[in-house]
Amino acid sequence: MNYILIIITAIFVNNIVLSQFLGICPFLGVSKKMDTAAGMSGAVAFVMVLATLITYLLQHFVLNPLGLGFLQTICFILVIAFLVQLVEIVLKKIAPALYRALGVFLPLITTNCTILGVAIMVIQKDYNLLESVVFALATAIGFALALILFAGIREQLELSDLPKAMKGTPIALITAGIMAMAFMGFSGIV
Amino acid sequence: MNKKLAIIVNGILHENPTFVLLLGMCPTLGTTTSAINGLGMGLATAFVLICSNLVISLLKNLIPDKVHIPAYIVIIASFVTVLQLCMQAWLPELNQSLGLFIPLIVVNCIVLGRAETFAAKNSPFDSVLDGLGIGLGFSLALTLLGAVRELLGSGQLFGYSIFPETYGSLIFILAPGAFIALGLLIALANTLKTKAQ
Amino acid sequence: MKKLPSTIWPMLASLTGVCLLAGLLLSGTYYLTGDAIAETEKKQQEKAVKAVLPKYKKLETDTVNGMPRHKAFTRKGEYVGTAIESTVNGFGGPFTVMVGFNSDNKITGYQVLKHQETPGLGSKMTDWFVEDLAQWSPEGHPLKLKKDGGTVNAITAATISSRAFILAINQAIGACVDTRPDTATGATAKTKGGQHE
To answer: Which domain holds residue B128?
Structure first.
């Protein structure tokens, strides 16, 4: 029951993008096309689960016993940077097409605040290891859901006739706002 | 002298991180529930930006190209941790209301972005000025967005009541209002830019 | 000075140097802010205890059911009241409420210490429940929202936060005064006896 609650909350109620405001850069940046959005979601999900697992162990078996909790930020970001490099190298070898499509955004996963944000959040919420991993996965699904839905809407937006000042980011933000309103409707279910 | 001033103005106007470069959107949306929170977040980011710009431009020749990203991240993360500790010690209330977004300054694209595009190529003094300009531009933008949301949402400005709360529209303090208010402000900035040209 | 080349030794040396520098900076800051952080935390806690209890001179702190408990006495050692820090899971994450009880086991006040509830909705709990709690007496049943068949008005549109808040208060009540001795553990009953002596 607890896990179901964590999953539903992380995907819908406290959606990482639409209610926590994390990962807005990739949300606006790679949402112009459906396939790049899907690729980005996959990469984020992979890195997020792996990073949360490793940072959780790091916090509880290295930092806490040594009383070095204040080094959390710096240690976590290094772990994440290392993982992203790894994913980049692997992707370059295995799926060059996807690698080309994601281009500049892969290194940007390092500066994607969802990853570091989730890693810190599971420590703050005092989850156990399994809960942390479940939470990371659910958050990644929530991110993917928001990103892919948004990409679908934006493909349509391209075709609509807008005032010049509203083109691009402004209308994307307003659309995101309306999506956030829709997601607020989920807050009644827990 | 004018050239130095131009670097600061550039950060505030021509390369305003929020309205022109469209960077650092997460804290922009996440912390601007009130003008004072926006200002606090802006200044916190400015502190990290100035320090990291200075150190990176001092060390730029000692850091080989291939390892510049990890080196920069370590430098930035150190200053963020310094900021975190100082805020815990002396500004507990602000630290509490900004919460997660303080450690997340590490991954704010503005900080790493300025390190790469400016501090790695310019003199230490110019880099500090650039950090100051961009930091101020970011603070101004966040304060403005925070003020708009606070005023429309709760009828207050910096905590002072302007009109009764019941006339406010709560949606502007909640998540959707953040997106919509920022979208409209950027559209406004675009209009002003077109007019100025 | 020329930029260091991207070969193995310069890269290793430069990264080690940067990390050493970061380590020095951080341990220095940690050393300098350590006392200030502890003091700020203590001060904040004291401020909250003062706000929820009648005037007192001495404070004794221990834990009951995992919650920090502060018992207050006058200079002469007369019992004044108890403040309990009760933590629950709210809508936006865990939050902590400091609840004060006087020597008649009436609620004298509360302070929300840490919370991440939605601004403008759940965050209203900081002063929403003052009147309802002032009317509460040990003879009353555990607190419940009107929605759940009780007497307390929930915050409009923030039922989850309200329920969590009531749970926090009930936890504190359970730890400080026991309203129904038949369901209580021996420990809480003893607590009550101790206070009336």
So the answer is: 2-146
